[in-house]
DNA sequence: TTGCCATAGTTCCAAAACGACACTCAATAC
DNA sequence: GTATTGAGTGTCGTTTTGGAACTATGGCAA
């Protein structure tokens, strides 16, 4: 079975994961919750490649988790902001954060 | 930056995702919370390939989220059971479930 | 004692996704 | 003019995935 087939799974966990369950997606959302909204900000903060970020943003907009809001018209540039639907992922992010704080202490500093 | 470099990230969300943030891993944990513990059960329940399941189980055991408990000695066979550390991921799973129930209604039935 | 089944993986290969880096395009800054 | 910034694309080689077949170990049954 392919990952993409999960979107129609009977299980709500699986359906959620079909949206946010791949590499990097949750990190983009974390940055959104931290107040970021622009392409270059996400790149710098998360360390992911531009290629993948473009893909993830597209998916998140399609899923209704983020909204593309133009902030200049020429050239077209957009802020990516959380929708209500997106904001309601906060509890999941917080749970992941708490678990990481408790169970995965930092072993060495990184510059990211 | 590579995905695997996240394990030493300053952000606890990123560190958590380095363990559970890739495709399928959370689904394996969901099945564990539903009471499953064996290879073939995970395969049947999640629809993932054997290959990937073997890899994910190995990583989860290495990460201390699951524990391998022998249930026959010849041949060696194991139950995969949640450790305390693993059980504490429950809030995250529940958050993902709630979000899916609310925001991702099923569009058509599937047999999985 | 040969044959079949079950469990738990492994191996192999093709296809898709990823990672690194260069390049584009529009506008503004110097 | 030339350089810089923001938001991506294009290319290309490397990993990871998906699918199917294969292996290993023992139980059971004819």
From TrEMBL, chains A, B:
GO terms for molecular function: DNA binding. Gene3D superfamilies: Winged helix-like DNA-binding domain superfamily/Winged helix DNA-binding domain. The keyword DNA damage does not apply. InterPro entries: HTH_HxlR, WH-like_DNA-bd_sf, WH_DNA-bd_sf. Keywords: DNA-binding, Transcription, Transcription regulation. It holds the Pfam family HxlR. Residues 11-108 form the HTH hxlR-type domain. This is Transcriptional regulator.
